[in-house]
Structure formats: structure tokens, C-alpha cells
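Bug #77: duplicate submission created two jobs. Keeping one. Sequence:
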Amino acid sequence: MTLAPWACDPGQSRGRRHPEPAAPTRTEFQRDRDRIVHSTAFRRLVYKTQVFLNHEGDLFRTRLTHSIEVAQLGRSISRSLQLDEDLVEAIALAHDLGHTPFGHAGQDALDECMRAHGGFEHNLQSLRVVDRLEERYPAFDGLNLTFETREGILKHCSRANAQRLELAEPGGVGRRFLERRQPSLEAQLCNLADEIAYNAHDIDDGVRSGLITLEQLEQVELFQQHARESLADHPGLQGRRLLYEAIRRMLSAQVYDVIEATAAAIARVAPASADDVRASEALVRFSDTMRERSGALKSFLMRNLYRHPQVTQTTVQAKRVVRELFDAYCADPGQMQAGFAARPDTPRAVADYIAGMTDRFAGREHERLTGSRLLA
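Kept job's structure:
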């Protein structure tokens, strides 16, 4: 497919931190995607969870299935906008590599533990994974991905951490946060595809768990519209088939809305290159109406699912597991794997070690070190 002028061209990539010969049969972004898929951190995503923890059921989304869904949505949209699909896929598959076990509960707990040591940001951790923590190549640490993929992985970054990144890599992926510039359109697209994906699958998982109902979802205009259209086209539809059809239509509506609104924004700004995109306002977007409806859905999920007493109770236990693991490893680094135990920066080494854990491994390690089993 011919790329638009505003897309990232793999032939014009800003390159890798450690120069390598080009691959004979793959573009630079295809090569990034393949390295991510074969990484240890990517495989671990199958046992890292979103809202529901790993022990709560086999059919709930994990970080792996979520990343695949983001990649699918991203590729569908990027094709219509003539963006580089392989770059979108690489960013989507890597964007959660730095997430801790136990979803946002684990991330929050680890950030609290690291408050005196620079804090913990899962986006920055994803970059650490691909830049430093993966150990697959003889000549360098990490996966040595292109600038464009790394730029997309670093979705958010505090100013303090951006300054540290800039000192280590002048003009690198931290610079845009200091200059308040945008990332590529491919990166912007992954950000929005991430939101679309988790809103949809959290509805599915929430109903599957019994914590939210179809009747409650009737309060949400975005879902209600597509549920009613589904019933109009298929009278008598009910249960999971109604849920799936409404979600399918909702996803399609959001995808088409993003394509239309983003194409209009691109036409108005008329960027001549990917660098023009970076110097512009954010261009990948919903229409005003869809943004409002998507925001209402997020608010509904926050009230009725993420803050549900059953989820909150599990969150409290998960945070305790992470805090007690952190304290135990700081007190005795030798309890970690040798590569982490030998590092001089003990708190950061502990954070890296815990962040790389799956839910089940973290639970087993906690039980081994404390004798207490919190997550049955």
C-alpha cells in the first residue's frame, strides 16, 4: 500500500540506537514487530491481567489479548488513513510490556513503593523493557527498536523522567515531552485504539463476571443506541448474542468515526511529512459527539465496574502482595533471580523484577516469602 506523506516511512526511519544492517526481506518496522512478538516480556502478557485477576477465570481479557485487539483496531484504521500498519502493530503489541502484575492495582502499589526512588510509570517501564531489560542479543541490551516504535511506546512521561531520558539520549524519545510536541500519527492512533479496545472488552468482561448487567448498560447512550439497533434488525435477540452484536456495532461506529474525524483534521492541517505531524496539534481523534459518548462510557465503567466492591476487595489484596514483595526483596535481594540480585540499584532492580512478573508468579512468590496466600 502507498503511504501518505504524513505517515512514518520505514525507509526514512530515524534508526536504532545501535546501528544494524538492514534486513533483506523486512522493513524496519516489520522487524520491530517481530522482535516484540518473540520477546520474553510479550509472552508474559498472557498471564498479566486487566481488571479481573488471573485466578478469577480463564475467559477474561489479559494484557496479551488486549494488545492483540488494539493491534487489530489500529491496523484497520491505519489502512484507511494510509499510515504504516506495521509500525502501528509494533507499537500496539509493545505498549503494555511494562505493566505490572495485577493490572492498575499493581502499578499503583509499585509506584507508592518507589516514591522515594523516582517512582514507577508503566509507559516508561515498557520503554525500559525494550531498551534495557530484554536480554536476547550479544551486542546490546534490549531489543534495539527504531526511534519511531520507541516513540509510540512512550505514551506518557513525567517531565522529570523526560529530562532524565534527554540527558541519556539527547534529541531522543524524551524530547517531545519537554517541547510539548506530538508523536507520529501511528503513535497517536495506538493511543486511541487502546481506549476503544479496553472500553469494549471491559463491557464484555464486566457482564461475563456478573458485576454489570445489560439493563445497567441501557444507561449508556453509546451502548444503548447499538443495542436497540441490534434488536430492530434481529427481534428477540438476547443474552450474549445481543451483547456481542451491540459491542460489534459500537466498535465499528467508533472506528468509522475516528477515520472520518482524523481525515478531516489532516485535511485541515495539511501536514507534508511525519515531522509536520509532530509539530502540529493532535490529529487522531473522535468527533465531538463520539468523544462525549466515549467519555460517558468510561465514567459508567469507572462507577460500576472498576469501583465495584468485589473488584476493590481484590485490588486491596493485590496491592498488599506487591508491597510485601517489594519490602521482602529490598530486605534480602538474594531472594530475586541472580541478574537482579547482583545489581547495585536495589530499589529499581526490585521494581524491574516485580514489574516483569505474571499474576500467578507474583502470587506464588508472595506465598513463598511470607507464608500467606492472599489470592486463592
